[in-house]
Amino acid sequence: xxxxxxxxxxxxxxxxxxxxxxxxxxxxxxxxxxxxxxxxxxxxxxxxxxxxxxxxxxxxxxxxxxxxxxxxxxxxxxxxxxxxxxxxxxxxxxxxxxxxxxxxxxxxxxxxxxxxxxxxxxxxxxxxxxxxxxxxxxxxxxxxxxxxxxxxxxxxxxxxxxxxxxxxxxxxxxxxxxxxxxxxxxxxxxxxxxxxxxxxxxxxxxxxxxxxxxxxxxxxxxxxxxxxxxxxxxxxxxxxxxxxxxxxxxxxxxxxxxxxxxxxxxxxxxxxxxxxxxxxxxxxxxxxxxxxxxxxxxxxxxxxxxxxxxxxxxxxxxxxxxxxxxxxxxxxxxxxxxxxxxxxxxxxxxxxxxxxxxxxxxxxxxxxxxxxxxxxxxxxxxxxxxxxxxxxxxxxxxxxxxxxxxxxxxxxxxxxxxxxx
Length: 421
Prior knowledge:
Layout: E1 2-6, E2 12-24, E3 27-30, E4 36-38, E5 44-47, E6 51-56, E7 63-65, E8 70-75, E9 80-82, E10 85-86, E11 88-90, E12 105-108, E13 111-118, H1 132-145, H2 150-160, H3 165-172, E14 176-178, H4 215-225, E15 232-235, H5 247-260, E16 265-270, H6 275-283, E17 288-293, H7 298-305, H8 312-324, E18 328-335, H9 343-356, E19 360-365, H10 370-376, H11 387-397, E20 402-404, H12 411-420
Domain Radical SAM core: 180-346
Cofactor: [4Fe-4S] cluster
GO molecular function: 4 iron, 4 sulfur cluster binding; catalytic activity; metal ion binding
């Protein structure tokens, strides 16, 4: 397994002698064969600005920096969980990497490989299933049908400019579609992809919505999308804040929709901090709830989410309530090699999942500058297992919990609704 690196023009090379190494958190480590998969279709190789690549001399075992070059990582498609970070050191300690999830990449057997694991079926999230020419026509047709709907106008930008697949589904009229609703948030996430303070040093890759939708606009989008048994409409997107802050319009809109149709599933992606608001949304007919979380340890959770007027205990109570009312609950678990696999992190999260009745763990790669993240969270207190072994421990400890990457529909409920249709 040989080192992959880039020159200043972005040309990528494999080193003829140095072996590739990777990072698990801030620890340099060798890469095991069992941690590698061929570079997935849809993955992108990127150079990491202001870094120096590190390889290992196979004879001496010494680590070698390549001056004058930059490290290379892979951005893997959704559904692929990264197991290791690229091996590098920063040439400029003040520089921050853009908000992406960088995976270790190597050259072996005349091809690129990444340290990763296929965690879910990526068919519905394969960019090849979203041809741009057809999407443009569908966007145009949909906006002609709903010329006054500002949500759909906003989603057209997300679909065409950001190539957001969830937004695109609104126009392809299938699978899981977006319903952004909130321009405000009750958290100040360190790695927020839609809003960053001007002095953060992180450029936001998306623009947050800047208007408050009407109840009628929500109903229009929901009824347009919920027309097949397996359709999903989802509050809580990357282009908005926390959707439950808009419970005052979500709740009546959901009730109006459920008075007209039982078709499809209503989902919310939420930090679940506003427990009373979540209870109201659940009682209005919510089917699925995905709770965004990075840790079940208060100090770690608070350092990343920076919650405003809520605590991790509120999150747990919201998830407990939803589960008790028959909502299919999942966690959107933001994963970072060297942290996700810490002994104390795993123990706390397994207890959280058991307490709250979570049915699905959606593994999502945390998009962040590694040094910034590691500097603000607690240091490891116990053993660090490695991502692959950690996931296997979750499977063993939680045999009834599904481990994937995407929103799943409970199969028995889908069968029931198909029979009704």
